[in-house]
Amino acid sequence: MYRSFLLVLFLFLISFEPLFSAELTILTENLPPLNYLREGKLVGPSVDIVREIQQRVGSEEMIEVFPWARAYQLALEKENVVLFGTTHTKEREDIFKWVGPLATKRDILLAKKGSELKVQSLEDAKKVQRIGTLRDDTRERLLKKHGFTNLYSVSDEQNNAKKLMLGRIDLWAYKKPGWKTVCELAGIGPEEFVEVLDLREIDVSIAFSRKTADAIVNRWRDAYKEMLSDGTIDRIRAQWRQ
Predict the structure, then answer these.
(1) Is residue 46 within 8 Å of 56, Cβ to Cβ?
(2) If you average pLDDT over every residue of the chain, what do you get?
(3) Are residues 40 and 54 in the same domain?
(4) Is the pTM of this model over 0.90?
(5) 3-state class of 88 per DSSP?
């Protein structure tokens, strides 16, 4: 009887082991200030939060930096993919499994300082010639949803900052906080640009591919909740606000 119990227990543990030991593909993008490359090193408050979660759940995988469109597609199609920070929209609610939020952001439109553009509404923004967006990003999707046809996509936001500075685009769709850090990384003084229109305020979270086991997602979720309770999340955010 005892041996039978041990055998059943062993088989039970073996059957669940893959759920907890499955190798994850952890992806992010170069998107200041939450997660970005600074002198070749991945930094930012979202990175610190994710790494602390990894430490608590025993995940040793490296975080890889991909262009957003490619990372997003992998998260849609593959199993055991973790993608952060992903804007948590209603449209995405059921196509990923979520942990977070990592931060709250404000999507905005920026113009070059001294520009004569008068942008007080989405309809005004539709009338400009060129708006710089990040390829397949939520801001690009949002503007397309509102009928914008004057969008020009790039794969790195620093390119948008440079294009706005050179007059190759009229507006830049990005977020706050973040745009000033992008400008500095691109070698442009943030004082060269001004915020002209708020688009929305929304959370950024960790997204797991739907094919990831619930057991894995729940371990990350529990670790995140623990970090909220013990003050770790607040301490990380405060360090990056200094």
Answers:
(1) no
(2) 91
(3) yes
(4) no
(5) coil
